[in-house]
């Protein structure tokens, strides 16, 4: 059979998903090149594929939510608890295992170890020098990172800073630039450009204020993106990739040379606010999958997808738990059975809430069949024969 | 027969004082409960009209017996109103935002209209109503806090600031607002205004939360118990009610007698305290009410709340009849679908069976056996619903009377469908349906292959058994929950039921090159396994016929099966020699015959990516897979009994030269560490990016030591050949791994806590045997000895330190993951697939198609719904023929 014909034949099948169609096409063509396939056999193969696919479809009523919750929760008992582990880059710590999964489903405002993977554009990614340059541009550099010495003079109530040419040039900074930033405080007492010394006088202040002043000076941002504590470059198959400790998607995406299409962070909330809900959903799937994979546990994508879809179904991120999805439930009884029982009951009482018993917990509570699985089947008997 | 009533919805609301009085069957006046003769006092807390708690008595209100009468409410008229602790926040909200004179919300009609519109819109877009109400309250409160614009826009009255002094006192500027004042104020609030503040006046009016009359729960809710000594012990709620009535009485008397204001005030507050603690005994800011013994009372809120509360303990989880629990033990002779039930339990658990013309004789026989002889019966239910117990004395009469249409509750017997469960029920495979096999002795017997999904072992585990009571339930359990239906896990589309431990080593021993059996042995083996085929090919030697293990095992494989894969023992060489593999690790199954390779973990072990088993289930169906597991394991059992499998300390023996080399390597490692430390101390160590020199040193030391240990392990491994049974176990995936064996033979290696060397314990050192600040390998938990060699005391302690971390970790993890699973379950449990394939929960659509392709993972092979290679291969082959 001709290749075009095979493609046409496969494409004409409506019920198969695209991925299976493509796989089928590729494999049929490959076999066809080796030994010509007859029309009949191609038809048989396609028919059997369709049949097998249709045999593996979910049945109506299937409690897919429960199965997903079990499938993600059950391996939890097998996961490690050790918070820190080494991810792709040996020098960096990333929260993994059970704590990370909990963090994801909680949609924590700030993850305990925010990390970014910065991909670079074509002309940068193969040049280590250019990559390094971007990395230093991303890395947030504060005064404390580059001073050789920083002293607090409690007698004269002054702060003395000393710099070093070597450290400065490593960070692509000049003393003038640094001085300009520090001088913006308007507390400069004297500058010794020769020895790269700056003396700052905060004025007539108490010792405690002086200490505070010193921390302020130390934390003056000189360059880089806010929140990015460290940026490391690493050679990978596709070229150089920058990994950062700390996350600031908006800031990093603005940097020239950064491939904004592939650069990501592990802060799901940030992805949501910068890239939107669909991106957040994909991020949830990606993060959970990678944590499970790292632990050597395998969970079907469909379960994780369902969880992510449930968390993002409202068009915003909802966490799993009483402040999120469980608190938004429409059923009073289900809410009361989960957490903070009496508060939900009082609330229901005052607003005259109605529980129309549409979920699982409510029906368990009142002792009725639950509306999932075989419980959704409603049989009505049609009387035939004589009417009584 | 059964009256089918469905609850459609439940509406919530608050009870008005009128409702409470109307509902009440008795006005409770006295704090006493029983008189001297032990009879309940009328108008007392145990008034006989409130229900019955003594068996034998009849309810004075409804005339029903104990157990039938659910009890009736009474009421207490409070001398002065008190505030309901659950609604303090709401009362505060109303007092803040309404006029003290006219009771209208302190906003102009125009503003109110705007808010009303906003709330109406919020309903449409499903936005949060709470936020808007909060805004409204904030706006309205401005009138009370500002000093300029502080008059009511409706009546012009000047507003004063209202403050809440927790838990229950309200102050208007510096004057106390008594509950009576508050009630009067709240009564003035209009229905429309109440709606704006989130209250539904049809269900509840805010002034009802200032209680004037208190409902008294029926005695059935707070039964008193009589102790053996004859002393009655009252329920916590009764105690609390006694307190309330006493104070209420005293308050009334004092008011009537015209007592000084101060005294009345005090008593009023005391009444407020008692009512508050009656409703909730864990309110912040007031001491909890205690029993005479000092125990904190469990009042209404405490009854409902938490894990042991009414909701989670009694409503979401219920106790059931027709269940039993006992210790489990293994039985390799029964099928995976079966469960061995002790006779004793089988006599206790019953299945109702309707008498028909077809089974009447059989059931009569069962009744004649009585309740004490195994296939017997315990009860007969007649057509009018009367239940009669079958006893040895009257069994003949009952058998005689048996008619078609009666129901016989007969003993559990072979073939009945039951549900079997082991906690924790983490996934749906924790409850599966089995067929009963009644057996002697007192334990539940189960096939070893079903241990993995349950997570069961036999070190004292107990399991539960439930008997479905209706035909519908039995059929549903059998078609959906039977063990053979669950071979493939829904989590990943992987077989979770399959061989484990010795079966796996047994399979290796049976199918490895060189295993042969005589004709007699083969016959016996096949008979034992229940296989009615015989291998065709044999070898002849000395006039005797010999059959290879591979030939025998092939009998279990379906005839048209073709498969090629790598066995577990595969060493993952760079270039795979395939059929010519020296270890026989490349499995080739051709037309149902095992041509090459050994059968081991990769073939049919549970949870091990076993291609063979998943293919078997998917292509040949669960019946074939079950038969394979049942017969295969029996076959292996026999082979194992014949060939033997044992391990001992000598399995880890290595030659002297090898142990000397290991020792040298470890010594070298330690020396390298010392050198590293020297470099570090000289300050010459180059730090890794982003690390301090100390951290760099640590990671380098760890690296050096683990390298040393790995090398030592490799040397030991070379001497651990497949002729040692412990090695067979490790390499085939039966139990343990090579690493464990090298720990026995070569060296334990570095012990660690939190991924670091052991450094804590004493100041700057791990044990007092070392100098402060010492950083050498041995001083920080490197165990150079092997288990076989023996550990010295310091090493032993280090090993225990590492071991302890594991234990703590497990304990913490179970708690954490348990809570996470509960939350996941709660968030996802209502999600289901609709008839049109859309995935929905109660509120909205979650996915348009489940998993984007509509495939059920438990019907897939490792997530893939179709194996195209297999289909193409099969079709090509069938054409060739």
Overall description:
The complex is a heterodimer of chains A (388) and B (881). Chain A has 388 residues and is an alpha+beta fold. Among the domains of chain A are: 3-55; 141-223, Gyrase A, domain 2; 329-376, DNA polymerase, domain 1, CATH 1.10.150.390. Helices cover 47% and strands 14% of the residues of chain A. Chain A is built from 19 helices and 13 strands. In chain A, strands 10-11-3-12 form a 4-stranded antiparallel sheet. The longest helix of chain A has 18 residues, at 277-294. Chain A is flat. With 881 residues, chain B is of the alpha+beta class. Chain B folds into 7 domains: 15-73, RNA polymerase II, clamp domain (DNA Excision Repair, Uvrb, Chain A); 86-208, no CATH class; 224-317, no CATH class; 323-486, Barwin-like endoglucanases (Beta Barrel), CATH 2.40.40; 502-643, RNA polymerase Rpb1, domain 3 (Enzyme I, Chain A, domain 2, Orthogonal Bundle), CATH 1.10.274; 649-808, RNA polymerase Rpb1 funnel domain (Topoisomerase I, Chain A, domain 4, Orthogonal Bundle); 830-881, no CATH class. In chain B, the strands form 10 sheets. Chain B has a 6-stranded mixed sheet. Chain B has a 4-stranded antiparallel sheet with strand order 11-14-12-13. In chain B, strands 3-4-5 form a 3-stranded antiparallel sheet. Chain B is globular, with a radius of gyration of 38 Å. Chain B starts with 9 loop residues before the first strand and ends with a helix. Chains A and B meet through α2, α3, α4, α5 and α15 of A and β1, α10, α25, β29 and β31 of B.
């Amino acid at each position: 059979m001709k290749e075009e014909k095979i493609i046409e034949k496969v494409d004409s099948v409506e019920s198969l998903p695209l991925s299976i169609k493509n796989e089928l096409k590729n494999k049929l063509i490959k076999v066809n090149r080796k030994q010509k396939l007859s029309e009949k056999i191609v038809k048989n193969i396609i028919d059997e594929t369709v049949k097998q696919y249709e045999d593996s479809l979910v049945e109506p009523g299937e409690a897919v939510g429960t199965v997903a919750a079990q499938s993600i929760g059950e391996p939890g008992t097998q996961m490690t608890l050790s918070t820190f582990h080494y991810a792709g880059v040996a020098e960096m710590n990333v929260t993994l295992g059970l704590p990370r999964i909990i963090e994801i489903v909680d949609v924590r405002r700030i993850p305990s170890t925010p990390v970014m993977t910065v991909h670079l554009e074509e002309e940068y990614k193969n040049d280590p020098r250019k990559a390094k340059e971007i990395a230093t541009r991303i890395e947030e550099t504060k005064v404390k990172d580059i001073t050789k010495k920083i002293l607090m003079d409690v007698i004269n109530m002054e702060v003395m800073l000393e710099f070093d040419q070597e450290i400065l040039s490593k960070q692509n900074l000049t003393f003038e630039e640094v001085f300009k930033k520090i001088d913006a405080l308007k507390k400069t007492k004297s500058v010794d450009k020769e020895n790269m010394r700056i003396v700052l006088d905060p004025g007539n202040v108490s010792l405690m204020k002086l200490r505070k002043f010193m921390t302020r000076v130390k934390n003056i941002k000189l360059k880089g993106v806010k929140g990015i504590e460290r940026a490391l470059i690493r050679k990978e198959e596709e070229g150089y990739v920058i990994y950062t400790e700390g996350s600031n998607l908006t800031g990093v995406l603005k940097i020239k040379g950064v491939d904004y299409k592939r650069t990501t962070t592990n802060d799901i909330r940030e992805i949501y606010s910068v890239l939107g809900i669909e991106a957040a959903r994909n991020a949830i799937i990606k993060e959970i999958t990678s944590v499970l994979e790292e632990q050597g546990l395998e969970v079907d994508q469909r379960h994780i997808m369902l969880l992510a879809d449930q968390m993002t179904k409202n068009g915003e991120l909802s966490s799993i738990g009483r402040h999120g999805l469980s608190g938004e439930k429409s059923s009073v009884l289900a809410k009361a059975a989960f957490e903070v029982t009496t508060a939900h009951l009082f609330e229901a009482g005052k607003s005259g809430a109605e529980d129309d018993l549409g979920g699982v917990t409510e029906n368990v509570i009142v002792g009725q069949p639950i509306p999932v699985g075989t419980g959704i089947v409603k049989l009505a008997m049609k009387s035939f024969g004589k009417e009584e | 027969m059964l009256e089918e009533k469905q609850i459609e919805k439940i509406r919530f609301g608050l009870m008005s004082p009128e409702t409470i009085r109307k509902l009440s069957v008795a006005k409770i006046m006295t704090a006493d409960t029983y008189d001297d003769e032990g009879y309940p006092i009328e108008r007392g807390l145990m008034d006989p009209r409130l229900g019955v708690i003594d068996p034998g008595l009849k309810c004075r209100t409804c005339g029903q017996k104990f157990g039938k009468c659910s009890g009736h409410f009474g009421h207490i008229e409070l001398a002065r109103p008190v505030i309901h602790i659950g609604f303090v926040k709401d009362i505060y909200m109303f007092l803040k935002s309404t006029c003290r004179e006219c009771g209208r919300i302190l906003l102009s009609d125009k503003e109110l209209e705007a808010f009303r519109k906003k709330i109406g819109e919020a309903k449409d877009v499903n936005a949060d109503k709470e936020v808007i109400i909060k805004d409204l309250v904030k706006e309205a409160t401005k009138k009370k806090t500002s000093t300029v614009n502080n008059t009511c826009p409706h009546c012009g009255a000047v507003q004063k600031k209202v403050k809440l002094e927790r838990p229950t006192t309200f102050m208007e500027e510096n004057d106390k607002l008594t509950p009576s004042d508050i009630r009067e104020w709240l009564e003035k609030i209009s229905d429309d205004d109440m709606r704006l503040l989130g209250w539904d006046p049809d269900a509840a009016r805010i002034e009802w939360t200032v209680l004037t009359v208190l409902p008294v729960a029926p005695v059935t809710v707070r039964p008193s118990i009589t102790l053996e000594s004859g002393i009655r012990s009252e329920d916590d709620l009764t105690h609390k009610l006694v307190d309330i009535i006493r104070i209420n009485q005293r308050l009334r008397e004092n008011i009537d007698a015209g007592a000084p204001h101060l005294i009345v005030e005090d008593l009023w507050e005391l009444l407020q305290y008692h009512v508050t603690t009656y409703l909730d005994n864990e309110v912040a800011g007031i001491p909890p009410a205690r029993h005479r013994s000092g125990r904190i009372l469990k009042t209404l809120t405490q009854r409902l709340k938490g894990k042991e509360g009414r909701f989670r303990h009694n409503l979401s989880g219920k106790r059931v009849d027709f269940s039993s629990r006992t210790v489990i033990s293994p039985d390799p002779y029964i099928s995976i679908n079966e469960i061995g039930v002790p006779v004793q339990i089988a006599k206790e658990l019953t299945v109702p069976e309707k008498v028909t013309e077809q089974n009447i004789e059989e059931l009569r026989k069962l009744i004649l056996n009585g309740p004490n002889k195994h296939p017997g019966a315990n009860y007969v239910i007649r057509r009018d619903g009367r239940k009669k117990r079958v006893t040895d004395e009257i069994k003949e009469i009952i058998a005689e009377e048996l008619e078609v249409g009666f129901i016989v509750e007969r003993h559990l017997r072979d073939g009945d469908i039951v549900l079997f469960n082991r906690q924790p029920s983490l996934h749906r495979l924790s409850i599966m349906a089995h067929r009963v096999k009644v057996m002697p002795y007192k334990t539940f017997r189960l096939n070893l292959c079903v241990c993995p999904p349950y997570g069961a072992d036999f070190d004292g585990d107990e399991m539960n058994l439930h008997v479905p009571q209706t035909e519908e339930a039995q059929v549903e359990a059998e078609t959906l929950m039977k063990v053979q239906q669950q071979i493939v896990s829904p989590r990943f589309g992987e077989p979770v039921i399959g061989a484990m431990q010795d079966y796996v080593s047994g399979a290796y021993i049976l199918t490895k090159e060189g295993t042969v059996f005589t004709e007699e042995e083969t016959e016996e083996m096949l008979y034992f396994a229940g296989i009615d085929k015989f291998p065709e090919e044999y070898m002849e030697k000395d006039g005797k016929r010999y059959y290879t293990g591979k030939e025998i095992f092939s009998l279990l494989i379906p005839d048209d099966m073709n498969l090629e894969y790598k066995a577990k023992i595969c060493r993952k060489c760079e270039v795979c020699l395939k059929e010519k593999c020296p270890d026989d690790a490349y499995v080739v199954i051709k037309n149902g015959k095992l041509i090459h390779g050994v059968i081991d973990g990769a073939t049919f072990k549970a949870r091990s990516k076993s291609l063979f088993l998943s293919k078997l289930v998917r292509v040949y169906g669960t019946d074939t897979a079950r038969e394979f597991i049942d017969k295969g394991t029996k076959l292996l059992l026999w082979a194992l009994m014949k060939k033997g499998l044992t391990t001992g300390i000598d399995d880890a023996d290595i030659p002297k030269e090898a142990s000397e080399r290991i020792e040298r390597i470890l010594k070298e490692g330690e020396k390298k560490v010392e050198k590293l430390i020297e470099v570090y101390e000289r300050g010459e160590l180059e730090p890794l990016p982003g690390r301090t020199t100390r951290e760099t040193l640590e990671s380098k030391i760890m690296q050096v030591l683990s390298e040393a240990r790995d090398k030592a392990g490799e040397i030991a491994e070379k001497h651990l050949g497949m002729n040692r049974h412990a090695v067979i176990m490790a390499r085939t995936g039966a139990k343990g791994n090579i690493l464990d064996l090298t720990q026995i033979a070569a060296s334990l290696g570095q012990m660690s806590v939190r991924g670091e060397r052991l450094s804590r314990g004493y100041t700057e050192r791990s044990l007092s045997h070392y100098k402060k600040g010492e950083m050498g390998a041995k001083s920080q938990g490197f165990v150079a000895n092997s288990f076989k060699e023996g550990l010295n005391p310091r090493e032993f302690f280090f090993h225990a330190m590492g071991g302890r971390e594991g234990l703590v970790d497990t304990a913490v993890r179970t708690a954490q993951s348990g809570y996470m699973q509960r939350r996941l379950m709660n968030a996802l449990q209502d999600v289901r697939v609709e008839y049109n394939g859309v995935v929905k929960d109660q509120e909205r659509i979650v996915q348009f198609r489940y998993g984007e392709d509509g495939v059920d993972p438990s019907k897939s092979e490792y997530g893939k719904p179709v194996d195209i290679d297999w289909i193409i291969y099969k079709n090509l082959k069938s054409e060739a023929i």
